[in-house]
Write a structure and sequence with these properties.
2 strands; 5% strand; mainly alpha
Length: 116
């Protein structure tokens, strides 16, 4: 049984690192941010003043819609497969629980019938 400490509206439970997905995701996120800033430093944004009022339009080499499409498609596949695996695990667990209840019922009826 998991014992939770009761303090200040459960803030220690929200901010704990043990068992948290956030603690596992932060290093990958920081690596992605580092790669982004390195790409920005190596491939600076091009500026073009198309309007005469001093505003500049910025476009970057990774603003192409195909790159965004690839990222969205890959994330969609990953989320779909992950949800499918979770759904399969749920139904496997549900079937196992029903089988366990059936076995306990069999044991109880056999015990009741041979008890007399």
């Amino acid at each position: 049984m998991i014992v939770y400490s009761k303090n200040y509206f459960g803030l220690s439970l929200i901010f704990r690192a043990h068992g948290s997905a956030v603690a596992r995701a932060v290093p990958q996120a920081l690596l992605s941010v580092l790669i982004y800033f390195l790409m920005e430093a190596y491939y600076p944004m091009k500026s073009s003043s198309a309007q005469g009022d001093g505003l500049e339009k910025f476009s970057s080499w990774y603003d192409h819609p195909y790159a965004v499409g690839v990222l969205v498609t890959s994330c969609t596949f990953l989320i779909t497969f992950r949800a499918n695996f979770a759904y399969q695990r749920y139904w496997e667990a549900s079937g196992t629980v029903h089988q366990m209840m059936s076995k306990w019922m069999d044991a109880a009826t056999q015990s009741a019938s041979f008890h007399m």
